[in-house]
Design a protein that fits this description.
Largest sheet: 7 strands, parallel
Number of helices: 17
Radius of gyration: 23 Å
Strand content: 5-15%
Strand order of the largest sheet: 3-4-2-5-6-1-7
Helix content: 40-55%
Distance between the termini: 79 Å
Order of helices and strands: HHHEHEHEHEHHEHEHHHEHHHHH
Oligomer: single chain
Number of strands: 7
């Protein structure tokens, strides 16, 4: 063995620390441009705690740096040369993730979307998700549409941001969540969300079962066992089940070293201008046309709801969606096949498309 190889293997051995040791992260973040807080290091170490675990849920409150925590985990995996890493995030956060990992952790990333995917296929690269030494970033919708590619890639780590979008995975109607669960069943997963529980305890069941469906068993067993949390024994059992897989830090726990800005709500009256009323009426009239070629008949109700929400958001938001629809109609007249589905295109204009679809499906039928 040459002196060079001896030094190299000695360096590699420094990365082999126990899973709960802070030294495990030392080499990975030595050159990172981040000011780490104690709770972020704790969260990253928690994600490494159990080598037999299928993943972890990091559920720190808003503003506590879950992206940094995930960056620490990703950096360590990268240092260990486990470099098949996928990040699934809302489409409007893809560039932010790319920037954070590139500028703060110096990790090479690529955003994979329909245009680049199709170009890779045309060039003869039939596995666009398998890129050498680059982290793949894609949207929920894209990962769902390319589920077979995702399932056939041997990922070392899959990070899912805004993971509360998966909370209703126990419902068959949530197609995206169930498709991703099936595609990622064999992978080590890191879920990030500030709101693991919003309306029902079953949402917590959904998120945990997405990581490891054996933690709580089936839906019926979970309901029977945890229906009455007012009993101390039941509540303690739930906490014990969650402890190895879910980590959460509250803002009030870090005030000693994180200075939060005080915010005060100001209420202002808002009256739409005449031009805004006119735009609203024109779009409404258009959406009520009986023969509307712009929207797929199977998704007309959902798309109408999305467009109305965009309309209530801003003229800029609705303009982007209308431009997308106009471009698709022009391609249809020229008998060209659009590269992306309407849902994919609107998902870029309207970040809450998945949640809107869930709301629509969850609404009880009219009597």
């Amino acid at each position: 063995m040459t002196p060079y190889h001896a030094k190299y293997f000695a360096y590699e051995l420094t990365k082999r620390c126990s899973s709960d040791s802070i030294e495990k992260l030392a080499g990975a973040v030595a050159s990172a441009q981040v000011d780490l807080n104690p709770h972020q290091v704790d969260a990253a170490l928690f994600a490494f705690n159990s080598p037999l675990s299928k993943g972890a849920l990091l559920a720190d409150e808003v503003g506590l740096g879950k992206t940094i925590e995930a960056g620490l985990v990703i950096s360590q995996r990268w240092a260990e040369r486990k470099r098949k890493i996928l990040i699934i995030t809302p489409s409007n956060l893809r560039k932010q993730w790319h920037q954070e990992l590139s500028e703060k952790f110096f990790l090479p990333c690529t955003i994979l979307e329909a245009r680049f995917y199709n170009a890779a296929i045309k060039q003869g690269r039939f596995k666009p998700f398998e890129v050498q030494d680059e982290i793949i970033i894609c949207s929920y919708q894209f990962a769902r549409n390319k589920a077979s590619d995702v399932a056939n890639t041997p990922w070392d780590l899959v990070v899912i941001d805004e993971a509360h979008r998966l909370r209703n995975v126990y419902k068959p109607s949530n197609v995206i969540a169930n498709t991703l669960k099936g595609a990622l069943g064999h992978c080590n997963k890191l879920l990030l969300t500030a709101t693991p529980l919003q309306n029902s305890l079953l949402e917590l069941f959904g998120l945990i079962s997405f990581i490891d469906e054996h933690t709580f068993g089936d839906l019926k067993s979970f309901r029977e066992q945890f229906v009455n949390l007012s009993q101390d024994q039941v509540f303690d059992t739930l906490k014990a089940r969650l402890k190895p897989i879910c980590h959460r830090t509250l803002r009030r726990q870090v005030t000693a070293y994180v200075p939060f800005t005080s915010r005060f709500a100001l209420v202002e009256d808002f009256v739409p201008e005449e031009s805004e009323d006119r735009l609203y009426n024109l779009v409404s009239d258009y959406l009520q046309r009986p023969n509307l070629q712009a929207l797929p008949s199977s998704q007309r109700t959902l798309m109408t709801l999305v467009l109305r929400k965009l309309l209530a958001s801003s003229t800029f938001a609705i303009a982007g969606a209308l431009n997308s629809i106009s471009a698709r109609l022009k391609k249809k007249l020229r008998r060209q096949q659009p590269v992306e589905t309407l849902v994919e295109e609107l998902d870029q204009d309207y970040e809450a498309l998945n949640e809107t679809a869930e709301e629509l499906l969850d609404e009880p039928p009219f009597e």
